[in-house]
Amino acid sequence: ESSLKVTGIDFLKSQNTQQHHTDGYNIKNLVVRRGQPFRVQVNLNRELRAADKLSLRFGIGENPLKNKGSLLSLKPEREDFNGWKISVVKKNGKECVLSVTSSPHAAVGKYNLHVKTGTNIYKPENGVIYLLFNPWCEDDVVYMANEAQRKEYVLNDTGYIYVGSAYSIYDRPWNYGQFEEFVLDACMYLLDKSKLSLTDRRDPANVSRAMSALVNANDDSGVLLGNWSGNYISGTSPMDWIGSVTILQKYYKTKKPVRYGQCWVFAGVLNTVMRCLGVPSRCVSTFDAAHDTEENLRVDVYLNERGEKLNSLSLDSVWNFHVWNDVWMKRTDLPDGFSGWQAIDSTPQEQSQGLFQCGPCPVKAVREGDVYLPYDSKFVYAEVNADRVYWVVKKVNGRDKYFKVGTETQAIGRNISTKAVGQNRREDITREYKYPEGSKEERMSMQRAYSFIRPVGMMPRSGYASTVQGLGRSTQPVVPKEQVTKTGLHLEITNTEALHPGNPLEMAITVKTSTPGNWTVDLTGSCQLQYYTGKVQANLGTIKETINLEGTSEMQIPLKIAPDAYMKTLSSLEDEVLILVTAIAEVKETNDKLTKETSMRFEYPPITVQMPETAKLYNDFTCAFLFKNKLNVTLENCKLLVEGLGIFKMTTFDQGDIMPGRIMKSEIICTPTRLGEKKIVAKLISNQIKGISTEKAITIT
């Protein structure tokens, strides 16, 4: 009687991956999600009999052992083992189809499958099975009930990251590409590198925290090296990426940090990693985000007497925007009510438990002021809730003195944005992070937060200001109030003409009063160029005016900057800059003071993409990119970056200089390799302009 031997295994890849929503992964191996059955067909040398011993063995890690839980030996129809079970679905001569259901709490990672029959062990080729989190499974902690949300937050491999400023929000297309070649392997490499125990690998809270640390290179030679210096000669400028794929592929190949990232690149890559592992994830942009180095819920901004912001004094800063990620999960480690979206952040800002990592922090804890909950909720709370205090630094008898010229309590953490589900538009999710400003709930939440975070008294706290006496911490938490002025003073800053590089920058400061009386207002205004991190790069010009207003009235004061004042700086910088306008108004009669700042983006002519609306699988089509330089300046060293997931790899065209009025045209022959709606993303960069992006969709049939 011959002993039972396995002659082959069929992983029934196409039916399994369709049922598990993993058919997108560009990989030879079987990829399945936990807690859901998949089938394998085992071919034998003879028919399977009742007395035969057959078991499937799943091993994870270097040296799988039963007593460590890293080796699972499953026999058909037997009681489950660690929540896994298998059964024989059908027998047909020498073929036997088995159904395997992993535990919905199984460790995520790569499992080696061997089949044991009696004393024989069969090791199939491509026998490594990738097991992911499962948002479709009700017993998985990442379960998401809504199908449209699962499509967006798990399966969509393209999206937008919102950047710019609160005054002018701009959508930057981003290719996540979680299904592209080597991306899943890169994520598995990161999981191994994280040294998470098998138990920790079951829980998306631990996995997402570990990934927030590994996407930056700071402690562990992770994926991306951050660089905000303006010098990117030894790598790729953060502005030059249009997606995560090139970054993760390069990292997987070299195992060395890729140069360079800034916050939207970190968030784009972390979003790819989390979606790839099966955790619902979204990129979240906060405008006017506080980077408060002392958790005191206050950011101090220092101005000189011309109203220009000073870099040197500030320890903390307000970024025009900051991008992090929300991941969706049930928090089994916390009291009820804190499940759902959790903020994680891989931009290296501050250490948490000794590493540059941040989160997961329950978004509901931020909204309710429960800032004692893990992880890093004080930090995230401060990013969206700090107050901004303005100080003017004046020389008095040769020494610096600080004069407070304004407090803003509602300016930080605005327009919190993410891409809408199933639509190419921005969705404002500020309400998920904060109650409406001034509401009863907001006040209660704030008092709750302030009972865990002790803000310091109202003193300036720059490097120089530590010499000021009386920096003792106030024992009673003070909830600052927005000043109410006797004159009803109000400032507005706008641009009166489109802000095109090469043209004069034409802006205006509108001063309003709304109470009876004659008011003399001293207005100081300044215009500067700054990075999105709030770091000033150039002073462009200032104005000083004294105006008279009566009762309820307003006056518009123009602020105009000639092209010569800024074009040289603009061309020499490697990063995109914003135009910062700051206004200080002081009413002589009442000593009322008010300060306001607004950041604006430059506006650029568009790129257009010409291609058919549909194309057939593996049939070539032509895609053309057109750009007309409608500006008054030559754009030097133009590069066009293009990428289409499932159509063509990232490609760069050098375009040289494009003179005013000239049209650039580039064509690429495309061969679609995947079905469905696919997107082509294009970005033009030059010395003068750091990024004009566009995207266009095509349906592949």
TrEMBL record:
Its cofactor is Ca(2+). Residues 255-348 form the Transglutaminase-like domain. Its EC number is 2.3.2.13. The active site is at residues 263, 322, 345. Binds 1 Ca(2+) ion per subunit. SUPFAM superfamilies: Cysteine proteinases (SSF54001), E set domains (SSF81296), Transglutaminase, two C-terminal domains (SSF49309). It comes from the Eukaryota. Ca(2+) binds at residues 385, 387, 437, 442. GO terms for molecular function: metal ion binding; protein-glutamine gamma-glutamyltransferase activity. Keywords: Acyltransferase, Calcium, Metal-binding, Transferase. InterPro entries: Ig-like_fold, Ig_E-set, Papain-like_cys_pep_sf, Transglutaminase, Transglutaminase-like, Transglutaminase-like_sf, Transglutaminase_animal, Transglutaminase_AS. It is an enzyme of class 2 (transferase). Belongs to the transglutaminase superfamily. Transglutaminase family. PANTHER family: PROTEIN-GLUTAMINE GAMMA-GLUTAMYLTRANSFERASE, PROTEIN-GLUTAMINE GAMMA-GLUTAMYLTRANSFERASE 4. This is protein-glutamine gamma-glutamyltransferase. It comes from Machaerirhynchus nigripectus.
